[in-house]
Amino acid sequence: MARPDMPVNVAExxxxxxxxxxxxxxxxxxGYEMKAVKVKGEFVWHDxxxxxxxxxxxxxxxxxxxRDRQSVTLGAGDMFVVPRGVQHRPVAPEECEVLIMDAAGxxxxxxxxxxxTAQDEWI
Amino acid sequence: MARPDMPVNVAExxxxxxxxxxxxxxxxxxGYEMKAVKVKGEFVWHDxxxxxxxxxxxxxxxxxxxRDRQSVTLGAGDMFVVPRGVQHRPVAPEECEVLIMDAAGxxxxxxxxxxxTAQDEWI
Lengths: 123, 123
Known about the structure:
The first copy, chain A, is mainly beta. In chain A, 5% of the residues lie in helices and 47% in strands. The A-B interface holds A 3, 5-11, 26-30, 32, 34, 51-54, 69, 72-75, 77-81, 83-84, 101, 103 and B 3, 5-11, 26-30, 32, 34, 51-54, 69, 72-75, 77-81, 83-84, 101, 103.
């Protein structure tokens, strides 16, 4: 899909996300894609050798476990960058709405094949 | 400044911004910087040949006039990408809080020297 030439509303896009752990692309800039995702529960440990991954929590609370350092917990309005290649595992006890930005084509589970591996899809 | 290894809270960062049109960097990912800025009034026409520029409105309303196409107006929770090289002019009749993401080192007024040209600064 081409980049939208109209403003994109985050809440409106998130309202269309019906599955957990299934990020949907909402815009693209400089080869990086912003994705809207709802999460609940525990994701798989993985990393992204292609680049850093930006998390922005819109609603709820997200903990990101990091293999080699202290976990971080993000509330609404918090942002965090998981550096390139750092093993991480997002965990959300309750439903949480998140924006994720990473390089176009990055797979949500990194190099880990999982039933949680999602297809690249615009919403 | 090094990239923070703790979550960054958008509202907290914006509360530290005291000047209009003076974006402050709050995080970096893949060589792109997220900046918090308060705006009011009319900015200068300019463009960024280095890359696309992502706008995210946190509070208030921002119109982005575009030289070669229809203006867009963003409310809270709206995002928009001004493509690389497209002349644009942000306008906000009332105070508006915005996040802007573009390549590290990009100057807010592009190639236009202006009293509104800001220094690259972390907050």
